[in-house]
Amino acid sequence: SGLLSRLQTSALSSSKSFSQNIPSCLWKLGRLNHVAIAVPDLEKAQSLYKDVLGAQVSETVALPEHGVYTVFVELGNTKLELLHPLGEKSPIASFLQKNKTGGMHHICIEVDDIKAAMTELKEKKIRILSEEPKIGAHGKPVIFLHPKDCHGVLVELEQA
């Protein structure tokens, strides 16, 4: 019983110190909304998820402001977003030039207050790739955080 009480005390003190290290924010990070995958052939990718894997797959939607075509694959607890270039200035076109077979492009996490997130992240020297949020594929404001400030991952934040 002495060991058990020492373990409980140790676990309790470590959970307190862990929670004390979490800064209080004016905004809150939410659930993973989607993982985006750049694909060189959108029809083939749609077919893989729909016909081979049996997933529910959306229709293709053009987002000219973002320079992409998008397709969403429903996974129950989250989604995959298939991205294909729309126009020559598409960021996905340059991504696919470096990654010929495609690959993971970004992750999207929901936030409860995108404006507060932008203000605080700028104060913390996290670069945001636009001055103002743009309307994303779900019709909600989104911003992207610079991958060099996020351990090599392009992070999209979406207003929940």
Give a brief outline of the structure.
With 160 residues, the chain is an alpha+beta fold. The chain has helices at 2-20, 42-52, 91-98, 114-123; strands spanning 29-38, 56-57, 61-63, 68-74, 79-85, 103-111, 134-135, 141-145, 155-159.
Question: If you had to describe this structure to a student in words, what would you say it looks like?
Answer:
The chain has 160 residues and is α+β, with helices and mostly antiparallel strands. It has a single domain, classed as Roll (2,3-Dihydroxybiphenyl 1,2-Dioxygenase, domain 1). Helices cover 30% and strands 31% of the residues. The chain contains four helices and nine strands. Strands 1, 2, 3, 4, 5, 6, 7, 8 and 9 form a nine-stranded mixed beta sheet that branches. β4 and β5 form a beta hairpin. The mean pLDDT is 90.
Spell out the CATH superfamily.
2,3-Dihydroxybiphenyl 1,2-Dioxygenase, domain 1
CATH class: Alpha Beta
Percentage of residues assigned to helices: 25-40%
Mean pLDDT: 90
Question: Which consecutive residue ranges, at least 5 long each, have pLDDT under 50?
Answer: none
Number of strands: 9
Structural class: alpha+beta
If you compute it from the alpha carbons, what radius of gyration comes out, rounded to the nearest whole angstrom? 20 Å
Assign the CATH topology.
2,3-Dihydroxybiphenyl 1,2-Dioxygenase, domain 1
Q: What's the number of domains? A: 1
What general outline do the C-alpha atoms trace? globular
- Termini separation comes to 47 Å
Order of helices and strands: HEHEEEEHEHEEE
Characterize the largest beta sheet: strand count, sense, and whether it forms a barrel. Answer: 9 strands, mixed
Could you tell me the strand content as a percent range? 25-35%
| CATH architecture title | Roll
> Count the helices. How many?
4
